[in-house]
Design goal:
The complex is a heterodimer of chains A (253) and B (329).
Chain A (H helix, E strand, L loop, with lengths): L3 E10 L2 E11 L4 E5 L6 H9 L6 E6 L2 E2 L5 H7 E4 L11 H6 L14 H13 L15 H14 L4 E5 L7 H16 L3 E5 L3 H7 L2 E6 L2 E6 L1 H4 L2 H8 L1 E6 L2 E7 L1
Parallel strand pairs in A: 3-8, 3-9, 6-7, 7-8
Antiparallel strand pairs in A: 1-2, 1-4, 4-5, 9-10, 11-12
Chain B lengths: L1 H22 L7 H8 L5 H36 L11 H14 L9 H23 L3 H24 L4 H12 L7 H20 L2 H5 L4 H6 L4 H23 L5 H9 L7 H25 L8 H19 L6
Classes of the chains: A alpha/beta (253), B mainly alpha (329).
Amino acid sequence: MTELRITDLTVEAGKSFLVREASLDLIPGELVVLLGPNGAGKTSLLRGALGLIAPTRGESSLDGSIIANLSPMQRARQIAYLPQIRPLAWPNRVRDVVALGRFSHGGTLGKLGDHDAEAVDRAIAACDLKHLQDRGTHTLSGGELARVHCARAFATEAPLLIADEPTAALDPRHQFRILDLIKAYVEDGGGALLVLHDIGLAARYASRLVWMKQGRIVADGPVATTLTAERLADVYGVAAQVEGTRIIMDGAL
Amino acid sequence: MIERLLSPVLLLACLVTLLLTCLLGSTPLPMERVVSALFGGGDAADRLVVWSIRLPRGLAAFLVGATLGISGAALQGLLRNPLAEPGVLGVSASASLVAVFSLYYGLVAFSPWVLPVAAIIGALVATALLTLAAIRTQSVVTLILIGVGLSSFAGALMSLMMNLAPNPFSLTEMINWMLGSVANRSFSEIGFVAPFMILGVAILLLTRRGLSALTLGEEAANGIGLNLRNQRIFTVLGAGLATGASVALAGAIGFVGIVAPHIIRPFVGHDPARSLFPSALLAGLILMVADIFVRILPSQTELKLGVVAALIGAPAFVWIAMQRRTGHD
């Protein structure tokens, strides 16, 4: 079983702390959602954990090996990563973009091996993109594009997935669709760590919530125990009522 | 289907055009005389025209076009920008500046390798500067402006040298370098730049897969397993070697590296990696055709190839730039 373990990770930019002594575990079968206001350090935590930015202190490891010591290829085969900003430089075909998920397995666009092509087919089918696979990405809607990026991440068939705001700028129906896809991935044995801004959506799907404030993890546990009105007031500075996984926001504090 | 046929068709077109280069000229040679001269027969004058004048000239045009085409396609992939090209980014100008400097101070007298090495150093310095800038800024416009700045600065230094040129002969020599031409090139001159061209092209082709990954932007490209630092180093090194060598052979010829990849891209699914090889062939073809045009045009003074390339390429550059939507940046 592939296990991601983040231990006392600290990320600094100049003199300010982006992440302070954050520790977090992720194993397959879990859907962990990282919550916190803008600037809480969620993205920096993910990037530091993946070795995309160098942590000042602490480390993250994958099955006991330090991620910073892995090659990008080795890491990419174990953890699929969807960054927050997802530009596409060229108007590529949908299938080619999904096939980039096979990069770490040696897949080359235009001449995928059978094994790679099958993985791409599976990802395309899972994300309901079959009818779009020969279209140019520049002709797609925001919801369709989000599914293309998800399919790209799934095509890697990595045991873990880290996604930074995979539902940003999507309408409610598409947000549900993306999270249904990720939930299906977790039910198939994957482990996912997501950043979400919609607390209600997070509460509905997550098996665990990790709360961040000012670079620190302030709570980590099941939805039932960590989602409280007090926590929302403390972390987000909002007055809210919580009934089970339902949240009614009353306003800023 | 079209994609599979693309490279074979272009290769065939290049071979036919190379043959045409031997047929056409101020005195057209008939096919049978060219063919027998090519295979070592025919009379001595025909052999001289074909083997010492036309064939090396055509080959030089092809090699210069091909290396600029592949460098353009690779830089476009690296910088994720269809307007990136050795000429526009000031790489060619920097290469010809250092080359002219070595000519001006007579350094070329030491060894025939000095000229290509000087041009390559100029090209590598410029590509390295641009990549450093590309790491700092995401803006395509900024990068093009830095290229324009580099180009202008190299041009200014070149003007300074022309200003101080001791005699009309060195002035003419410098002008030839700035305008770009493949006239009177010999196989031995090609031989001194060919190893660098082959090395540069080989590096670009071997590392092209990473250019596909960069389609997703640098962070996601790293996320799917690309070693960004190595990719930058190899693409810059490959493009610098190839462009520098082409400048050492023909001087600065602009815009070929923009036009060819732009035409190729739709045929290869807009994948930068797959555009490299066909772009090289097409750019080589374009430059051979342009050079034939230059030779058969009944003008008093022969037009310079670089001038013709810019006359066709610069409007194409403007057109491609105008097609871009602001949303792209």
